[in-house]
Write a structure and sequence with these properties.
The chain is an alpha/beta fold. It is built from seven helices and six strands; from the N terminus they run H-H-H-H-E-E-H-E-H-E-E-E-H.
C-alpha cells in the first residue's frame, strides 16, 4: 500500500476527532472557574470570620442567632462549649471535700440564652473590670461569694468566683416589685444559687451561669426555673462542683 492513502486516512481521522471534541465542549458549556472560586471564598470567608467577630464583641455566636429567633444556633453554640486549656481546673473545693460531679449542658436550652467565649479564671487581688453587666466569666477575687439570698448588691468579683464553682447567679433590678422579689427569695435557699439586686441591668431579672446568660421578663418567667435546673454545676464552669460556702457575704435569712 502506498504512503499517500495512509496520509489521507490519518487526516480524516484527525478531522473526525477534532469535530467530536468540539461537540463535546459545546455540550458541557464554557468553563467558569472564577465563579466557582468566588463561591468557595464566600463559604470559607463566612466560617473564618464568625469566630473572631464573636470574640471581639465579647458575645458568642448564639447571641447573634438569638436575634433571628433561631434556637438551633443557640444549641449549636452551647454544644461546642467546653473548658479551655487556659482555664484553671485544679483548685481545692470551698470546704476541702471532693467536688460535686459536674453536669452536662442541656441539649434543649431555654430560648434566649447567650453564650460567651471562654477567657481566664485567675484569682486576682484588687478591683476587676468586666465588659458585661452582670459579668458571666473571667478573672475574679480569691474568695467566692457564699450562696444565698442578698437584699443588697454584692461585689461582682466575688460573684464571678462563685460562677466558676458552678453557681447560678440570679440578679434583679432594685425597682423590681416586692412581690416578685419575694418570689425569688426561695431560690436563694437552693444549692449553688445566689440571688441579689443589681443596679443598672436592662432586664427585670437575669440568670447567669459561667459563660451563659439569660434575660428574663420577671420572677415568674418559666425559663428561670429551667435555667437554674439545667445550668447549675455546669460542666463548662472550670471549677464546677467546688461549692460556695466559707467565702464572703452573709445572706439574708
Amino acid at each position: 500500500m502506498s504512503a499517500e492513502p495512509l496520509r489521507g486516512k490519518s487526516v480524516a481521522r484527525f478531522i473526525i476527532v477534532a469535530l467530536l471534541a468540539a461537540l463535546l465542549m459545546a455540550a458541557c458549556g464554557p468553563s467558569d472557574s472564577s465563579a466557582n472560586d468566588s463561591g468557595k471564598q464566600q463559604v470559607s470567608g463566612t466560617r473564618g470570620q464568625g469566630a473572631p467577630e464573636a470574640a471581639s464583641s465579647g458575645k458568642g455566636v448564639a447571641q447573634e442567632t438569638t436575634a433571628g429567633n433561631s434556637a438551633s444556633g443557640e444549641e449549636a453554640e452551647l454544644a461546642r462549649a467546653e473548658v479551655e486549656e487556659r482555664e484553671i481546673t485544679n483548685m481545692i473545693p470551698a470546704d476541702g471535700k471532693k467536688p460535686d460531679a459536674a453536669r452536662p449542658l442541656p441539649k434543649n436550652p431555654p430560648d434566649g440564652i447567650e453564650v460567651y467565649p471562654a477567657t481566664t479564671n485567675r484569682s486576682i487581688e484588687g478591683s476587676i473590670h468586666y465588659e458585661r453587666r452582670p459579668p458571666t466569666n473571667g478573672d475574679h477575687a480569691p474568695l467566692w461569694q457564699n450562696c444565698g439570698f442578698y437584699e443588697k448588691p454584692i461585689e461582682e468579683r466575688h460573684a464571678v468566683h462563685s460562677l466558676d464553682h458552678g453557681v447560678v447567679w440570679i440578679t434583679y433590678r432594685p425597682d423590681l416589685p416586692k412581690q416578685q422579689v419575694e418570689a425569688l427569695r426561695p431560690y436563694g435557699r437552693e444549692n449553688y444559687v445566689i440571688v441579689s439586686p443589681y443596679p443598672g441591668q436592662d432586664a427585670p431579672v437575669i440568670a447567669t451561669s459561667w459563660r451563659v446568660q439569660l434575660e428574663l421578663n420577671g420572677a415568674d418567667d418559666p425559663r428561670l426555673r429551667r435555667f437554674v435546673d439545667e445550668f447549675r454545676i455546669s460542666e463548662i464552669a472550670p471549677l464546677s462542683g467546688n461549692r460556695c460556702v466559707g467565702g464572703v457575704g452573709r445572706p439574708a435569712a
